[in-house]
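Chapter summary example: a protein plus 5'-O-[(L-methionyl)-sulphamoyl]adenosine.
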Amino acid sequence: MEKKKFYITTPIYYPSDKLHIGHTYCTVATDAMARYKRLTGCDVCFLTGTDEHGQKIETKAQESGITPKEFVDRIVEGPRGVKDLWKLMNISNDRFIRTTDDYHVSAVQKIFRKMYDNGDIYKGAYRGKYCTPCESFWTESQLKDGCCPDCGRSVVDAEEEAYFFRLSKYADRVRDLLENTDFLQPRSRVNEMVKNFIDSGLEDLCVSRTSFTWGIPVDFDPGHVVYVWVDALFNYTSALGFLNDQYHDYEKYWPADVHFVGKEIVRFHSIIWPAMLMSMEMPLPKHVFGHGWLLLDGGKMSKSKGNVVDPYILAEQFGVDALRFFLMRTFPFGSDGNFSNELLIQTINTDLANDLGNLVSRTTAMVGKYFGGSLPEGCGTWTAPETCDQELLSMARALRSAYEAQMEAYAPHNALSEVFKVIQRANKYIDETAPWALARDMEANGPRLAHVLYNLLEATRICGILLSPFMPASCEALFRQIGAGANCQSWESAAEWGVLPETAATTKGENLFPRIDAEKALAALEEAEQAARKAALPAVELEPQLSEQVDFDTFCKSDFRAVKVKACEAVKKSEKLLRFTLDDGTGTDRQILSGIHKFYEPEQLVGKTLVAIVNLPPRKMMGQESCGMLLSAVHTEQGEEKLNLIMVDDAIPAGAKLC
Ligand code: MSP
């Protein structure tokens, strides 16, 4: 039988900065859904990628002194870039599109021309409010307190000759799509779109720009580049081969089954995207699902606010699967949720270490201890099941369909909570059956004990299958520990009881999810975050050179001399000051105080030949006189102040003039 097709996408990311945990959230959700669909037997195409054009990127590249392409290449392909992150997070995308890829560029040019030829794109003049960071034009009525309704930043008046897309022409069809079908989910997003954008009247959309060049050129009108959102949205069809020869499965996979997108880009996906597809006479995606945001301290994460959470650090500290699980288990997919490290640790400890980890380790340990790692034949059946046996079995048998219903409704958090009900029931079953008590009299209770343990292994197996889209690597380890081979890991077998061979060889492997010491982990996180912040700072920063000139005579008035350090000690009650006793060649000791204790211990400096300005007026510091100043070189290294005293050859006699 031909497999059911399933085409699922994430938004393609702006590589203007490194990705944060908010971006990771959506991609992990899409990955879990794609893996789930593959598990159920679908032929899945999962697409992600990067959206690389637009003014913001052009400006950032200029600031970094490189070309826009070099700039995006670094973030997409470079170390710890977008592709690296998805590899680390075990993202199973089938395709990765970059909107700078040639095949996409020429496809978008053809699409633009087609909509121009069919009269849906026309030339006009655009006057409006433009938000540069969001690359969005807004009408006066759409602004929130005079600012961009998406990001809250200020907008500027902008006017330019531009092409327009006849969005207004499609208003009724789009309204019908939103109101009368299940195209846009969750349902609450429909009201937002209709009330905020459609009821107030859909205006035609400006779809070309002349004020910058980093975009796909309109091939029949040089000087215009295609609006970044038109370019970006058609990635979903370019990646299948629509109007290009790079791929050949547009017919197979289009229309998409679902686009997962964050709530702030639902407008583009549920109004502009279907309207353009209607203009192109292409089928519409079946669903757009607008998920919520991960918030930090109640607000959206953004690089400019400096409050982004680095997924690399979290994955390295807690493990990829624990992080994936946390994201999917904790935050209802359609709503916003508050991210915190404390919550992450608590979820790992409660669900993974306590509930799941304990179930697996206790069960395999007991099979090892009481039966040498393999249960006896016949243990799968029991003639007089007790209530607790029946309860565990019926919950485990019903689990797959409860889970499936939630996954099909794009509610992965609820699907996971169904699985955890069974895991918790299984742990309770251990307490109720008390295997350690049964083991005290193996002759009498051995068969019952084996049956109890078999039930536990079987419940664990079913849960493992359903958890595998969320924690693929850990579930492989789980299957190895309970002795479940490939035929015990299938979707079909998740609905059946008694699939695991009775004598399966179990192993007590390492603890799947060790308990986390919250205090230590938070301190280590803080340290890793600080190190990352430091690493992101420039390697060396120098004081800018003074532009004001000093005349030669004035300069010559400063008397620089070589001085030898006879003694050096810390000034009492001062953290910074060192007191130097110096031979300056005059025969009388000179005292200079210098605030450099942070950089040198006094004993390191005795005997060194330094450079001092000796004709500065004496100054009192901490009640002591300082006659002159020692010269040093200063710079900043990854945010840290550095200082080196100027030391000269010891062969230079004390008092020699430097000029
Ligand atoms: N390039 C566009 C998408 C074009 S799709 C044709 C874009 N890129 S983005 O990098 O800014 O955002 C990518 C996705 O990450 C969006 O769906 C956005 O909602 C999501 N998130 C960014 N920050 C987020 C959170 N803090 N929480 C959850 N998702 C967030 O938009």
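Key point: Residues 11-14, 22-23, 25-26, 51, 232-233, 235, 261-262, 264-265, 293-294, 300-301 surround 5'-O-[(L-methionyl)-sulphamoyl]adenosine (CB under 6 Å).
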